[in-house]
């Protein structure tokens, strides 16, 4: 059969039912195969970066390997930001690029670029197919690598002369390659249990690895068995219900709760599972570490000791470790009740909060999140990216379930939300969960970075609600300028030069409304939800918020220092 038909059979057997891409001359053999074999829906994007973010959102929602497709040259280079984002957040996606003919690569042929070398630093594996007979096996290996260990992106580049060949391949007797489980060494599990039982004020810290390993139930079981409060990182948000009796908030420089920072400051031992100790979480390391003991569990060995040396390091899949820890506790007959530490955390959670009930005009951002939490149910999938609204989201947006709070954590590319929301929505539809809502929270600046992908959502009837927090200037960047003594202001007034976001939505065949009063938010959100469901297209609610909407931020602020909420 044609080599590319073999590739499509591999994609289907690996669980791919939707792909996102943009056809071009060098990748047309693959598109022909998609048409011939069938079984994979394809959404034609307006920019290849958008395809990678769609594959990213799709993967974060269902845990499978998302697929983005592009042609040669700039298509591949356009994908680099998406590869970096997936790499940074441990998301398994596969980017497939077309390439100029093998015989022309050394002659600077049209759109011939060494995309493998360009992509190598931001992928787990980047490879060019040299022989057509390798095609199905390279793709099998690509899926295995993407899913193995710490998940991440891979890229496969296909010269057009290779793509046009036929090979011997029988899909009926082929299956995905096995992914080896990374099990914990049991003496280290016992040592971790010893440390937790000896501590007076222990915390569990759930990172994105708990989400990726589908280990939320195991995390809850350990917490309830050992009666230990649980904190989450930004990437771990949703690993435990935020209304759970043992939830202890988030620690961090920006995306944090006041009670979370204080609880962490008072702890004496931390079991961190699937967390990489990012700098916006830790702040100043000597303050973060203090005198407390750390157990660090990660599936990737080189993560241990990367930021600071733990007292105990354990290489393991998060789910398998937590399961082993619970079994070890049961084997010892551990029975614990809530003590002074759990009560102290509950006291802090009840008292060290941030206000949300503002009635001010212009609207204060925390009021927006109060309304979002009231309007959208637990099954809603929230998609958000980088900026002040990411910080407010971490502080105020409630999450109850794993894979329901999607945020680009480390890379932070502006514009991620719209394409990612498309990927999330398609993953839900494929899983028969068309009734689950998707909410994208965006800023006024990042909204226009990938706004062209609204055309994709409109064309393919992909509905979601976008809520824009618009302060009409780069608030977070302006805050960051302060330590440098500069004041390079960027104003984004829609009424001065035409960037009217509601009109932009309308130009793409979508709807939008602008809100100026806090009392208008609830009614406008109700309208947007109904409009999105009725039209099967994105709907925008643009909330005009106060300009000086600053949050605690900057290199001089330690992660666990106390600070008062912004008035």
From TrEMBL:
Mind telling me which InterPro entries this protein's record contains? DHS-like_NAD/FAD-binding_dom, THDP-binding, Thiamin_PyroP_enz_cen_dom, Thiamin_PyroP_enz_TPP-bd_dom, TPP_enz, TPP_enzyme_TPP-bd
Keyword set includes Ligase: yes
Pfam families on file? TPP_enzyme_C, TPP_enzyme_M, TPP_enzyme_N
Domain named Thiamine pyrophosphate enzyme TPP-binding: residues: 386-543
Name the source's superkingdom: Bacteria
Please verify whether the record's keywords include Lipid biosynthesis. Answer: no
Which GO terms fall under molecular function for this chain's record?
acetolactate synthase activity; flavin adenine dinucleotide binding; ligase activity; magnesium ion binding; tartronate-semialdehyde synthase activity; thiamine pyrophosphate binding
State any GO BP term from the record: isoleucine biosynthetic process
Q: Which UniProt keywords apply?
A: Ligase, Thiamine pyrophosphate
Q: Which reactions does this protein catalyse?
A: 2 pyruvate + H(+) = (2S)-2-acetolactate + CO2
List each copy of the Thiamine pyrophosphate enzyme central domain by range.
189-325
A single Gene Ontology CC annotation of this entry is: acetolactate synthase complex
Gene3D superfamilies per UniProt: 3.40.50.970, TPP-binding domain
The Thiamine pyrophosphate enzyme N-terminal TPP-binding domain is annotated at 3-117
- Belongs to which family? Belongs to the TPP enzyme family.
- PANTHER family, A to Z: GLYOXYLATE CARBOLIGASE (PTHR18968:SF14), THIAMINE PYROPHOSPHATE ENZYMES (PTHR18968)
Q: Which NCBIfam families match?
A: PRK11269.1 (NF008431)
Identify this protein by name. Glyoxylate carboligase
């Amino acid at each position: 059969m044609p080599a590319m038909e073999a590739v499509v059979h591999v994609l289907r057997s690996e669980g791919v039912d939707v792909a996102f891409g943009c056809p071009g001359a060098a990748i047309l053999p693959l598109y022909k195969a998609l048409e011939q074999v069938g079984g994979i829906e394809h959404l034609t994007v307006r920019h290849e970066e958008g395809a990678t973010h769609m594959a990213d959102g799709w993967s974060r929602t269902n845990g499978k390997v998302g697929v983005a497709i592009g042609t040669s040259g700039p298509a591949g280079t356009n994908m680099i930001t998406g590869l970096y984002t997936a790499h940074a957040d441990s998301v398994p996606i596969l980017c497939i690029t077309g390439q100029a003919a093998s015989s022309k690569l050394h002659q600077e042929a049209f759109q011939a670029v060494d995309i493998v070398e360009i992509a190598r630093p931001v992928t787990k594996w980047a490879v060019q197919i040299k022989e057509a007979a390798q095609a199905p096996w390279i793709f099998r290996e690509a899926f295995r690598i993407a899913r193995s260990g710490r998940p991440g992106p891979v890229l496969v580049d296909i010269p057009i002369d290779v793509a046009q060949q036929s090979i011997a391949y029988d899909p009926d007797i082929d299956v995905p390659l096995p992914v080896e489980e990374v099990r914990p060494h049991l003496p280290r599990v016992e040592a971790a249990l010893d440390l937790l039982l000896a501590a007076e004020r222990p915390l569990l810290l759930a990172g994105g690895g708990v989400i990726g390993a589908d280990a939320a139930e195991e995390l809850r079981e350990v917490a309830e068995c050992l009666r230990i409060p649980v904190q989450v990182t930004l990437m771990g948000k949703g690993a435990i219900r935020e209304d759970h009796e043992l939830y202890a908030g988030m620690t961090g420089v920006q995306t944090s709760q006041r009670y979370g920072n204080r609880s962490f400051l008072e702890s004496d031992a931390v079991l961190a599972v699937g967390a990489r100790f990012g700098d916006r979480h830790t702040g100043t390391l000597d303050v973060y570490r203090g005198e407390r003991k750390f157990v660090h569990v990660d599936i990737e060995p080189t993560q241990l000791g990367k930021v600071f040396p733990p007292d105990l390091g354990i290489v393991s899949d998060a789910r398998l470790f937590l399961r082993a820890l619970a079994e070890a506790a049961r084997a010892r007959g551990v029975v614990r009740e809530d003590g002074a530490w759990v009560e102290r955390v509950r006291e802090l959670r009840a008292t060290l909060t941030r206000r949300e009930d503002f009635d001010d005009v212009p609207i204060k951002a925390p009021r927006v999140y109060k309304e979002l939490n009231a309007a959208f149910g637990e099954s809603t999938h929230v998609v958000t990216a980088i900026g002040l609204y990411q910080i407010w989201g971490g502080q105020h947006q409630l999450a109850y379930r794993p894979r329901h709070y999607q945020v680009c954590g480390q890379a932070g590319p502006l514009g991620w939300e719209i394409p990612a929301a498309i990927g999330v929505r398609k993953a839900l539809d494929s899983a028969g969960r068309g009734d689950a809502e998707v909410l994208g929270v965006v800023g006024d600046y990042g909204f226009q970075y990938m706004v062209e992908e609204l055309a994709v959502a409109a064309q393919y009837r992909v509905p979601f609600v976008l809520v824009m927090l618009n302060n009409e200037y780069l608030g977070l960047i302006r805050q960051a300028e302060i330590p440098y003594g500069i004041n390079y202001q960027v104003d984004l007034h829609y009424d001065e030069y035409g960037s009217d976001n509601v009109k932009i939505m309308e130009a793409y065949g979508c709807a939008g409304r602008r809100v100026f009063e806090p009392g208008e938010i609830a009614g406008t959100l109700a309208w947007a939800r109904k409009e999105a469901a009725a039209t099967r297209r994105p709907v925008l609610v643009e909330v005009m918020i106060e300009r000086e909407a600053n949050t605690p931020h900057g290199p001089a602020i330690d992660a666990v220092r106390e600070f008062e909420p912004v008035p």
